[in-house]
């Protein structure tokens, strides 16, 4: 399948995109203080993690027909003796800064996966399902995997920015690897090696949609996803030979604010990063082992592909 087709599929994944809805679909809300909201969301998430469990027993002793999908339920009644998620050995906490405010992200690693892990700017082939903390499901793509970009980029074919996933989902996927491989059946369906990454993430609104309501997601809602990661593919959105994650020159995990030649097109989408007329691909060296060398012909500390004073 061609990469541009895969990216087009990715653009249809409405759930984790930050694309705007029509004004008529979004009601104005009072803008809350991000720091105060982060504290409130964390309290709600900790309460959820303390009062809910996942089907860990099915993962510990899977039946022959087990689908390896995470399911959540309340600790009560017949489930009163279950281990809460907050006490799970697989739960980790990540501090992620957004808009200058540190947010607590909770990631449940049911199975890490043995394949390559994505960078923040890569493409991932996943299944997922999203819920509110009250259990209401707002999107589910558990039947067929879909490609999702973890970071936005400028798309010439789309005539603007192709959005990535929400920040909380992005940060969680970095903790997981894909499958070691797969086999293709006679009917062209795929059997994945049973070692792909499986997990869940519990997201404060500040790492989600914050004050922007979405269908099924009220504003200021903490949300959660459970997911499986099958493939992590290194992205090179402008096909210039430099992986997209390496186009983040200032290291802030935002590839849209790195524009070396200041032509309005970020490096991640610019095949001539320094605007000297020589394509970036012709100013780097891709070695046989896949590594990249960056020549600096005039020894000024700036690699040729970023130096408009060095060109052919």
From TrEMBL:
<feature type="region of interest" description="Disordered">
    <location>
        <begin position="241"/>
        <end position="312"/>
    </location>
</feature>
<protein>
    <recommendedName>
        <fullName>peptidylprolyl isomerase</fullName>
        <ecNumber>5.2.1.8</ecNumber>
    </recommendedName>
</protein>
<feature type="compositionally biased region" description="Acidic residues">
    <location>
        <begin position="247"/>
        <end position="262"/>
    </location>
</feature>
<keyword id="KW-0413">Isomerase</keyword>
<dbReference type="InterPro" id="IPR046357">
    <property type="entry name" value="PPIase_dom_sf"/>
</dbReference>
<dbReference type="InterPro" id="IPR001179">
    <property type="entry name" value="PPIase_FKBP_dom"/>
</dbReference>
<keyword id="KW-0697">Rotamase</keyword>
<feature type="domain" description="PPIase FKBP-type">
    <location>
        <begin position="121"/>
        <end position="233"/>
    </location>
</feature>
């Amino acid at each position: 399948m061609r990469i541009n087709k895969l990216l087009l599929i990715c653009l249809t994944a409405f759930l984790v995109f930050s694309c705007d809805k029509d004004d008529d679909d979004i009601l104005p809300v009072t803008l809350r203080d991000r720091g105060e909201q982060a504290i409130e969301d964390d309290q709600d998430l900790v309460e959820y993690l303390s009062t809910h469990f996942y089907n860990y027993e099915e993962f510990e002793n899977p039946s022959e027909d087990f689908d390896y999908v995470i399911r959540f339920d309340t600790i009560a009644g017949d489930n009163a003796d279950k281990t809460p998620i907050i006490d799970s050995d697989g739960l980790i906490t990540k501090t992620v800064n957004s808009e200058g405010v540190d947010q607590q992200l909770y990631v449940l690693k049911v199975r890490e996966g043995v394949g390559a892990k994505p960078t923040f700017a890569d493409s991932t082939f996943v299944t997922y399902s999203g819920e509110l903390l009250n259990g209401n499901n707002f999107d589910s793509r558990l039947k067929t995997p879909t490609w999702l970009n973890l970071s936005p980029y400028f798309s010439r074919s789309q005539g603007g920015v192709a959005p990535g996933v929400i920040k909380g989902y992005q940060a969680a996927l970095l903790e997981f690897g894909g499958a070691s491989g797969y086999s293709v059946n006679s009917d062209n369906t795929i059997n994945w090696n049973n070692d792909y990454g499986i997990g869940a993430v519990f997201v404060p609104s500040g790492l989600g949609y914050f004050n922007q309501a979405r269908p099924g997601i009220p504003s200021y809602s903490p949300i959660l996803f459970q997911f499986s990661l099958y493939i992590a593919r290194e992205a090179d959105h402008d096909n210039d030979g430099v992986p997209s994650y390496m186009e983040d020159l200032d290291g802030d995990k935002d590839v849209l604010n790195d524009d070396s030649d200041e032509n309005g097109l970020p490096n991640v989408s610019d095949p001539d990063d320094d605007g000297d007329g020589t394509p970036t691909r012709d100013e780097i060296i891709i070695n046989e082992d896949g590594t990249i060398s960056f020549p600096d012909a005039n020894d000024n500390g700036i690699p040729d592909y970023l130096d408009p004073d060095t060109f052919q």
